[in-house]
Amino acid sequence: AVVAKPDEKWGETPxxxxxxxxxxxxxxxxxIAFCRDNMAHFKVPRHVVFGPLPKTSTGKIQKFxxxxxxxxxxxxxxxxxx
Length: 82
Known about the structure:
Layout: E1 2-7, E2 11-18, H1 28-38, E3 47-50, H2 63-76
Parallel strand pairs: 2-3
Antiparallel strand pairs: 1-2
């Protein structure tokens, strides 16, 4: 899932939250490189966060929780891509 992360320079930038299948391995750099090759520049996430995605009882991703996490990341981390 991708949500907007507050950014001082651009206002907001894409932040990808990724839940890998068991046994799958991929780095944030590989995800960003794939996106650069297949998406418009402004859509490419600057940050990738790995972990379980919060879901409702019906299995939908709770994006409002991801937006809160992205906001928290921008407040607690330096502005370096993951």
